[in-house]
Structures are given as structure tokens and as C-alpha cells.
């Protein structure tokens, strides 16, 4: 028996032969992207699939984004929309520190709405779970 880093093919095989019908069975990472402007990294975004239609989203934003926020939101929003379409995602989730108003404004601007408070998510600080539901075009 061997334990090795999983491939996309491994994940597809377990999804096709999963014990629980319709369950993902494992998590897949959508490759992260860096938003770069004039040689400066402004943000890194990525997603982790937790089921065939649901993904955890993450975004780390640099202070260097100030003065370029509108353009950054536009590019990042296009990326999110393309990933949703490509992977046929229906639910996106993100967690933000409850004491981080800039993060809260960012996820709300990206179309997420608050779903729950998660006590002690960040050690002694709560996190806020945000979700965004997608309407898939058939």
C-alpha cells in the first residue's frame, strides 16, 4: 500500500466510484492565481472544492491594492465568475474575521452574504461565514 499526492485523475476516479453516491469524497484545489500590476502582487485568490458543486474561496490582498481597488475587484470578479462557470459551482463559501471590516466589505462587494458566525474560528476570535449562490445557465 502506498500513500502519495493525489492527482486530478485520482479524484475523478474516487468521485466515480465513491462510497456515498453524489459525494465528492475528497477535496480538490483549483489552482490559485496572483493578481499582478506593474510587477507588484496585489492579491492571491483560490478555491478548494469540497463537493462537486461547492467551493471554499480564499483571497489574500496586499496593501498595495489601494488606488487600484476598482480595477482589482473587476478582474477578481471575472476570475470568480469564470471558475464558477467552468466547474459548474452552485455554492461558494468564504470566512472573514469578524473584526476585519475591509474583508467584510470585500466579500459583500463580491456578492457574498453572511450566513453564520463561527466562534473561535481564528483562535480566540470569531469568523463570519459568507456564501454566494450561483444560478447555473443550462
Folded structure, characterized:
The protein has 3 helices and 6 strands; from the N terminus they run αβββαβαββ. The protein has helices spanning 8-16, 69-87, 101-109; strands at residues 28-37, 40-51, 54-61, 91-97, 113-122, 125-133. Strand 1 (28-37) and strand 2 (40-51) form a beta hairpin.
Brief synopsis:
The protein is α+β, with helices and mostly antiparallel strands. It has helices spanning 8-16, 69-87, 101-109; strands at 28-37, 40-51, 54-61, 91-97, 113-122, 125-133.
In whole angstroms, how far apart are the ends?
A: 42 Å
Strand order of the largest sheet: 1-2-3-4-6-5
The number of helices is 3
Structural class: alpha+beta
CA-atom Rg in angstroms? 17 Å
Arithmetic mean of pLDDT: 85
Q: Largest sheet, described in full? A: 6 strands, mixed
Task: Specify the overall morphology.
Answer: globular
Residue share in helices?
25-40%
Approximately what portion of the residues adopt beta-strand conformation?
35-45%
Contiguous runs where pLDDT drops below 50 for at least 5 residues:
none
What is the element string, with H for helices and E for strands? HEEEHEHEE
Extended strand count: 6
Q: What's the SSE blueprint?
A:
Layout lengths: L7 H9 L11 E10 L2 E12 L2 E8 L7 H19 L3 E7 L3 H9 L3 E10 L2 E9 L5
Features:
3 helices, six-stranded mixed beta sheet, single chain, globular, alpha+beta, 138 residues
